[in-house]
Specification:
The protein is of the alpha+beta class. It contains 5 helices and 14 strands. The chain has 2 domains: 62 residues, Structural Genomics Hypothetical 15.5 Kd Protein In mrcA-pckA Intergenic Region, Chain A (Roll); 211 residues, Pseudouridine synthase, CATH 3.30.2350. Strands 3, 4, 5, 6, 7, 8, 11, 12, 13 and 14 form a 10-stranded mixed beta sheet that branches. It has a two-stranded antiparallel sheet with strand order 1-2. Strands 9-10 form a two-stranded antiparallel ribbon.
Length: 321
Amino acid sequence: MARGAIPPSPLRPRHGVDAQRFRMPQGGPWSSLRDHLVERLAPGLPPDEVDRMLVTGEFVDAAGTPVQPDAPFVPQSVVWAHRDLPVEVAHPEELVVLHRDDRIVVIDKPHDMATMPRGRHVVQSALARTRVLTGLDRLTPAHRLDRPTAGVLMFTTEQRWRGAYQRVFAEGLAHKEYLAVAPVRDDLALPLVRRTHLVKQHGTHQAHEVPGAEHNAETLVELLDTARGLRAESGDEVGLYRLTPRTGRTHQLRCQLDGLGIPILDDPLYPVEVDVALDDFSRPLQLLAAVLAFDDPVDGRPRRFVTRRRLAAWPGPWPAL
């Protein structure tokens, strides 16, 4: 195991969601583990619920042995437990597995599905649902897609493969192509390479471009085709764009196309933030992770995965990928 790696949970995931890990501080005023957990988990978990979980053996140590209700507080020790899962809106689409082998699983993620369990998207996240679908409890994302973005998403099957495949993305060795539906600007000469400096501050939803700063985001933007829009309220010409990012900043494609004056259709953040209900799947962001290709870091063979999805707002013929 790599230095500093967190040991795997002794508890199997529940509905595809990992147990929570609680590491004790180096010291404190608590004589018992129970007293520390009561203070630590308040107000979300009342004392009587902590007591119930201890009595029923729901807190376990690193070996998976239930912790006794009268266990002493031990500095820097670790316990694990499953917490209650939030009530969620069920995503209406099924996951599609594009590829599966001993090391990786590749899916075609639907729009409006989070990659990882977070906030109000836990059991309905792509990770949790893919674990349930495949029966592979140790799946971990090798990279991420924004929740509104659909398309090719890859997981590793075990911890021993995780680092090698995650480095493919961290070191920019993966070739990624996206398709997007957006307005057409007659005065915009394409193809072009969009180079900007993107910043996304903590606590804000939108990223923004900083004029004049050294670029940290780069995308090749190509217009593949144009067609008359499908929507009666508009009917304006729309374009099908191929976007090839050479960096991987948060919201890079969405922010850069907005900066070009061609914001992606049905984007709930750009150019302005729109409040979309959690159960509204009617107008997904028209952005699709269409192609993922790389040389396999384990055996060196070329890998290439292509989405089977389409963008609903595109009325023209679909390109060969």
